[in-house]
Amino acid sequence: MKRILVTGGAGFIGSHLCERLLKDGHGGNDVICLDNFFTGSKNNVLHLLHNKHFELVRHDVTERYMAEVDEIYNLACPASPVHYQYNPIKTVKTSVMGAINMLGLAKRIKAKILQASTSEIYGDPTLHPQPESYWGNVNCNGIRSCYDEGKRCAETLFMDYHRQNGVRIKIIRIFNTYGPRMQPNDGRVISNFIIQALAGNDITIYGDGRQTRSFQYVDDLVEGMIRMMATPDDFIGPVNIGNPVEFTILELAEKIIEHTGSQSKIIHLSLPADDPKQRRPDISLARTALHGWQPTIPLNEGLCRTIDYFKSIL
Ligand code: NAD
Ligand code: UDP
């Protein structure tokens, strides 16, 4: 039985990961879910609290934390632009000091540690689709920089702890992921559009809606994370984990209107600064290094599952 620490474990992705880790292994794993509940919630893991192999710890990753574990998944960090821009200084601290604290822990207890990095490493990309070798096009002092540069610095720290101290690291770059347990007030495009469509309110497209994203259902991501953690120690990434099927934001709005049967109208609001114009992962590396991993849940199916979830909580 492995002991596994998941920081940000009460968040959207973290809660799905904890659930899967408890099921995996022979007789399951011991999982410590660490969270400060900034954007996560106890409700996301309420169904796991009865499991004697699950522990929920209120803690902020900007402070040191000690535990004896075999593996660490470092997810703690707000991910939605609305939330990470709410207190940008704290966002930088969470990414950078959180990485230092968790890497220090991994070093001391000789644990393997995986960083939930992001496609935002590529900023507003000039290369399309984005392979891991692309260095990105990132504004270092704009409103998205607290997240983008915080995550870039975290990757630097992971690589330096690996080179300098031999820490066993794994870096994945997650592309837009959606599914049940996104917070209704999260501000990200899929949760916004579904909630607006279900309420019959206007669907708010920022800009002309021709910007693109590639949306991955959360179960596909969790499978990729677990496969990445299980790779040999000499494979550290970074590896893109995302769904390479690309849609414009306008196409997404139309799909959500169709699947909800909503009467909502589309309206256009101004585009936030530095909003990337296009984003699609090159997942060739993931396919080979993660033994044929690839997304299995198409957008239409994932949207229906997510719409059912929001119907059940609203
Ligand atoms: P989320 O906001 O639902 O989850 C983040 C979790 O981290 C929350 O539970 C929050 O309370 C917790 N947290 C935040 N600051 C913390 C701190 N200082 N100490 C302890 N806990 C803290 O977001 P998510 O979508 O589940 O994202 C999880 C991770 O995946 C993040 O690191 C994010 O950057 C990364 N990621 C997500 C996406 C995506 O599309 N969802 C894309 C790229 C990367
Ligand atoms: N977006 C939108 N309407 C919304 C929320 C977001 O048009 O109500 C757009 C946003 O400008 C961006 C895309 O949808 O171009 C994805 O936004 P999200 O915040 O989900 O993720 P990110 O920009 O970090 O990829």
Question: In terms of topology, how is this protein built?
Answer:
Layout: E1 3-7, H1 12-23, E2 30-35, E3 54-58, E4 71-74, H2 81-84, H3 88-109, E5 112-118, H4 145-165, E6 169-174, E7 177-178, H5 189-199, E8 203-206, E9 212-214, E10 216-217, H6 218-229, E11 239-241, E12 246-248, H7 249-260, E13 266-269, H8 284-289, H9 299-313
Parallel strand pairs: 1-2, 1-4, 2-3, 4-5, 5-6, 6-11, 7-10, 8-13
Antiparallel strand pairs: 9-12
Helix pairs in contact: 1-6, 3-4, 5-7, 5-9, 7-9
The structure holds nicotinamide-adenine-dinucleotide and uridine-5'-diphosphate.
Explain this structure to me?
This protein has 314 residues and is of the alpha/beta class. It has a domain at 3-175 and 217-243 and 280-296: Rossmann fold. It contains nine helices and 13 strands. It has a seven-stranded parallel beta sheet, sandwiched between helices. A two-stranded parallel sheet has the order 7-10. Strands 8-13 form a two-stranded parallel ribbon. Helix 4 (145-165) links the parallel strand 5 and strand 6. It is globular and about 55 Å long. The model has no long low-confidence stretch (mean pLDDT 97). Bound molecules: nicotinamide-adenine-dinucleotide and uridine-5'-diphosphate. Nicotinamide-adenine-dinucleotide is lined by residues 7-8, 10-14, 35-40, 60-62, 75-79, 94, 98, 116, 118, 174, 176-177.
